Amino acid sequence: MDASNPGATLNGAQTLVRLLQAEGVSVAFGIVGGKLAPLLHALSQSPMAFVGVRHEAAAPMMAAAVFAGSGRMAVALGEMGPGGLNLAAGAGCAFNNNLAVLLITTNQHRAAAYPHSGMFMDMDTRAVLAPLTKWNAVVSDARRLPELVRTAFREALSGRPGPVHLDIPQDVLVQPVTWQHDEFDLPPSRYRALQGPRPAACTVAAAVDVLRRAQRPVVGAGGGVVAAGADAEVRELAARLGAPVVPTQMALGGVASSHPAFIGHGGLIAGDAVKQAFADADTVVSIGCRWSSWMWDEHGPLARRSHATVNINIDPSALGAPALHTVALQADALLALQDLLAALPFDVSGDARWLPSLRSTRAAWEARLLALSAETPSDATPMHPAAIAQAVGQALPADALAVFDGGHTTFWSNDLTPVHAVRTRLHDPGMSQLGFGLPYALALQWLHPGRLVVNLTGDGSFGFTLQELDTARRYGLPVVNVIHNNASWGIIRQGQRSQLGFEMGTSLEGTDYAAIARGFGCHGETVDDAAQIPAALQRARASGLPAVIDCRTRFVPHPASPAFGSMNRYGWDALTRATRPPPAAPVPTP
Prior knowledge:
Blueprint: E1 9-11, H1 12-22, E2 27-30, H2 37-44, E3 49-52, H3 58-70, E4 75-78, H4 82-96, E5 102-107, H5 125-129, E6 135-138, H6 145-157, E7 164-169, H7 170-173, E8 176-178, H8 201-212, E9 217-221, H9 223-228, H10 231-241, E10 245-247, H11 272-280, E11 283-287, E12 296-297, E13 300-301, E14 308-313, E15 327-330, H12 333-343, H13 354-373, H14 385-395, E16 401-404, H15 409-416, E17 425-426, H16 437-447, E18 453-458, H17 459-465, H18 468-474, E19 480-485, H19 490-500, H20 513-519, E20 523-527, H21 533-543, E21 547-552, H22 561-566, H23 572-579
Parallel strand pairs: 2-3, 2-4, 4-5, 5-7, 6-7, 9-10, 9-11, 11-14, 14-15, 16-17, 16-18, 18-19, 19-21, 20-21
Antiparallel strand pairs: 1-8, 12-13
């Protein structure tokens, strides 16, 4: 250290907070704990906010939603032992959906940890969270905090985004270090790339050559489009090509549901037009899409070997697997599309009948769903789930935010909730963690305090995290939860009955979610007719409280369920053939 230029002496926790502030982190989610006290104290003396949840699993879910909703990183805290273990469920949501989050845990002091000596709450937290993070490390000395925190952000935000983790023993949090006066002035641009890479010029030329010959192109837009801020360029490319756009669940709003290129989003659950598009296309443009099973059928990824495929992805591991390509561009989606559009002629002449035919198929699909939503409930038959989804979709203001939580329930919301822009409709397609919806919605409400945020969920899903209604009330986050309450694990019950002829453990009858909400000090009411939903939403908003609207419905299989189920058959026939015993040799006839 330069003795003529002394700096401040900070403990490890204060140092950590300063480093987080340099990266623009504004909020940490977690539960207060004794070993975390030095870090909580440092947070209390900083501009950063702390939101105390009721279960640590909600903390990384909320941090993941901050990244999904804004592109900014947030922190999730876990106390040593079970606190760190509880982070795993939310870490999985972030990891499987490519969302950048910083997990911070504490542990026994260095004399008793790594290897652990048998104290209470001992746990190798680094090993537990390693499979659920892009990178993680134990901070064994506070003097390494600048290096390791900067490494964590570089790993989280470079290439495919994802969660990272630092485990900091309790004595490192209080370890004093004297720093150079300018240690915390180092901008992120000095230790990580803030943009890029651009595609190689030869790959751009090859891609343009493929696109100029396309007659029936389809554009698949994934989460990389949202991360790069490339949705406007996707729409421009679609207009040039006369192509439909199919956003994945991580790119909802890549084209608005009212856009002329929209034929459905989320893969085969979007209905007949998406299936037709990939079946009849000659060219696929894949942008920031990793071709997860939401975009499969029984034959594998919808981008086939027979397609001429241009694949743009910042992650080299997503190029060529599971979908093959004709041309691969390893690049940031925005920069790649800018280069493609600069080189692509405006007069690409494909089949003029292509997009109108798909739009017509989409219109027929929507009419089919609206007909289902018009069914009138009776005393013996609760309302149709399509009626709930349609009523909510029509009642939402244009600037509302929505989260789709649950298994089968999300299919109805996916089709019948209008989408106007990216980062306004969030789902968890990667992990499909039931119960993520309320934590996600709370984080979105924290980001956008003046906007309506709605969690569209099933009764089973809501039960996983309903305790976070308490978090909502304590922090004044007036999220509205609309529950499709069919009093069962509906899709599981259907499978048990239809496939194996039995039923066990699927009933969720007798729970009054509106009463539970009121018990937490929130607004709660029950609805048994879709016509009551708009007024119920108005009352929920007028209350100024977090709210639950308990909608009594019945289980009805979504029309896309068979198509969605087809992806589970991929490879199954070959597997069963391989494991099936050979037929017995014929018995010779005497």
